[in-house]
Specification:
It is a single chain. The protein is α/β, with parallel strands linked by helices. The protein folds into two domains: about 230 residues, P-loop containing nucleotide triphosphate hydrolases (Rossmann fold); about 60 residues. Helices cover about 35% and strands about 25% of the residues. The protein has ten helices and 13 strands. The protein has a six-stranded mixed beta sheet with strand order 5-6-7-3-8-9, with helices on both faces. Helix 3 packs across helix 4, helix 3 packs parallel to helix 5 and helix 4 crosses helix 5. The radius of gyration is 22 Å and the shape is globular. It starts with a helix and ends with a helix. The structure holds adenosine-5'-triphosphate and magnesium ion (MG).
């Protein structure tokens, strides 16, 4: 038996058993249901993306997964092998303003039981990765909002958990930092488990599996590539003033920002109906379209 075979076998056995399983989970706040009958399995080494509009329940779901909230109904099963070594990036910044950047991280790692050598090594590595090394002597309160977010990411990276739970981790980050961090997380595939919620669905492109939440319910879930392959093969983009004519022609469409989108399995026949339009852009569907397509009729 070669080592590749053994490695594959190891992954298959690991993947057979979920690390965390949500079984008919409901969460209520003051009798209002905010998560409704959520069933979900998360496997070790998996990258799971959670998408959904504001208030759809992403943060509540992450808090349940991390054990920070208890379900009102249903059950969350943590596998025996899951030692709950979670690193959570919260939507709000946690680190104390009166610490320096470096001390804020040192403090967290000390609380987590790291020794002096590990602290120095991990803190320096994490600060370099998020581009805060030159500002390590700054007070946290003097950092901009985006840099505070970088510090939150540095905290979790320095802690090096088995499971990363990231709630809107890249909000406010410039493109360069964001790409660098995405690249860092991508390299952890199959080594760490990552659960990420984001309004920016493009940030979920590194995930294997996607959950789309809508008003506390799972609208769709599945393998990202499979979900994408099931979308109509073309998207037609029209100017915002096309809606009247589209309504008259009874063509299903979706208004987003300053554009109107039509999804079509047979775009040539749809295009033929649109002769009167001066501008129609035809493109392949992107990840953003996945959510629009499934949420549009709800
Ligand atoms: N502690 C709480 N008490 C009462 N209601 C709450 C509490 N936490 C969340 N909610 C409600 O639960 C629903 C889901 O909230 P949640 O924060 O999970 O949404 P979200 O999808 O993360 O939104 P966003 O994209 O804005 O971060 C919302 O209606 C919210 O008002
Ligand atoms: Mg949230």
């Amino acid at each position: 038996m070669n080592s590749r075979f053994i490695q594959n076998l190891y992954f298959e056995v690991l993947y057979l058993q979920p690390m965390i399983e949500l079984v008919h989970v409901w969460k209520y706040f003051s009798r209002k249901p905010v998560l409704k009958n959520v069933n979900l399995k998360i496997y070790p080494g998996e990258f799971l993306g959670i998408a959904g509009a504001n208030g759809s329940g992403k943060t509540v779901l992450l808090h349940l997964l991390a054990g920070l909230l208890k379900p009102s109904k249903g059950e969350i099963v943590f596998n025996n092998d899951c030692n709950k070594n979670f690193g959570f990036v919260f939507q709000e910044n946690l680190l104390e303003d009166f610490f320096t950047v470096e001390d804020a991280l040192r403090y967290c790692l000390k609380l987590a039981g790291f020794n002096a050598f590990q602290i120095r090594k991990s803190v320096n590595h994490a600060l370099k990765l998020v581009g805060l090394y030159n500002r390590k002597k700054w007070l946290v309160k003097h950092l901009s909002k985006g840099l505070k977010q970088c510090l939150e990411l540095a905290r979790v990276i320095a802690l090096n958990p088995d499971v990363f739970i990231l709630d809107e981790p890249f909000t406010g980050l410039d493109v360069k930092r964001k790409e660098k961090l995405k690249h860092f997380f991508k390299r952890l595939k199959h080594v760490k488990t990552l659960i990420i919620a984001s309004l920016e669905i493009q940030d979920l492109s590194m995930c294997d599996k996607l959950v789309l939440l809508h008003n506390g319910k799972i609208l769709i879930t599945g393998d990202l590539k499979v979900l994408m392959s099931k979308l109509p093969d073309r998207v037609l983009e029209l100017p915002i003033n096309s809606t009247k004519v589209l309504n008259a022609l009874k063509i299903k469409h979706f208004v987003t920002g300053d554009k109107v989108l039509c999804f079509s399995k047979n775009y040539k026949s749809l295009l033929a109906k649109m002769k009167s339009f001066e501008y129609v852009k035809i493109r392949k569907p992107c990840l953003q379209d996945l959510f629009l397509y499934h949420a549009r009729e709800r």
